[in-house]
Amino acid sequence: MTTQKDIAEKLGVSVALVSRALSGKAEAIGVSAATVRRIRAEAERRGYIPNASARLLRGAPSRTLGVVVYDFADPFFGPFIDELRRLAHAAGHSLVLVGIEDRRVESRDLLPLLKHGVGGVIILGSSDDARGFELFAARQLPMARIGHGPAQDAAFTVHVDERAGMAAVLEHLAKTRRTTVGFLGGLHPAQEERFEHFRAGLKAAGLSSQPNWQVFSAEALMQAGYAAGRQLLAQNRRALPMALVAGSDVVALGALRALAEAGLSAPKDVAVTGFDDIPVAQLVAPALTTVRQPIARMARLAFDAVARTGEARPTIRHAVCLPALVVRESA
Q1: pTM for the complete prediction?
Q2: Which of 46, 92, 272, 280 lies 20 to 30 angstroms, CA to CA, from 237?
Q3: What totals of helices (H) and strands (E) does the chain contain, helices first?
């Protein structure tokens, strides 16, 4: 691996001068622009990569951020990871990703982030348990969560307005005269909150529901929608609701599968809506009516909360972003 010493020996200059040129500090001590260009060109030619550990030892801010992903199997997180990657690349940062088991955070899952000397942490996913993140709070590392979660010291949280998203779904179903509705969900904090807004918004939208049309499953991801859909169909085959509101897109996809196996289709027999607008939502047949989360804005807010090197970080501790209803074929 090329070092600053190698570059200095090649050009016949001091290591200190190479260090200043590569860190943007050479001009401040009167080094000519031509010399700086020559040093940087040689560094690029050799494929020089700054040593993160050495930078930290010199007191330089870390250019590495940690991302804790609650579930790598959930397709909802993919676009967020890609957006964070894009933001990090543009800002000259690196990302280190770690995952956790069964959505339960343990300190040992997060230790790799400390080994990489991260300067901040973005938590991707909702949880009602903040245990495990004391590692970062104790080191006064800035943290940001994309999703719902309990209050944490020095933490910034951004999530979508679940109430507004669910209200948009119910209003759409009312306009299309699907007046009886059920709810399918998985055991997940965000979906449970959406269910509360579903129940609270029925009367205002002029819709009705029944307890036996509201089914949750402990299965993971799409299997939750499939299992909940099968259970609802088994219990209500002769008295189905006109629409099914799913707690997420993956739950909606599982519900569509359960309907198809029963010889039913959406929206002809039962309309189906999702929540999140994952990339595949527009590609399935029927394309899914769903609630789109503003991924780019949410990722930007979380990134800025932890990555502003040398700048004052936002004083706001909590941001709520408005979603948008996307009407497609399923409802």
Answers
A1: 0.79
A2: 280
A3: 12, 12
> What one-letter code names the amino acid at 205?
A
225: closest CA among 194, 199, 241, 248? 248
DSSP 27: G
CATH architecture of 162-292: 3-Layer(aba) Sandwich (3.40)
Q: What CATH number was assigned to the domain covering residues 64-161+295-321? A: 3.40.50.2300
Q: In what order do the strands lie in the sheet with 181-186?
A: 214-217, 181-186, 243-246, 271-273
If DSSP codes are grouped into helix, strand and coil, which group holds residue 8?
helix
Q: Where are the domains of the chain?
A: 4-49, 64-161+295-321, 162-292
User: Is the omega angle on the peptide bond into residue 286 within 30 degrees of 0, that is, cis?
Assistant: yes
CB 221 within 8 A of CB 247: no
Q: pLDDT per residue over 139-185, tens digit each?
A: 778 889 999 887 665 578 999 999 999 999 999 999 999 999 999 99
Spatial neighbors of 223 by CB under 8 A, at least 6 apart, are: 217, 254
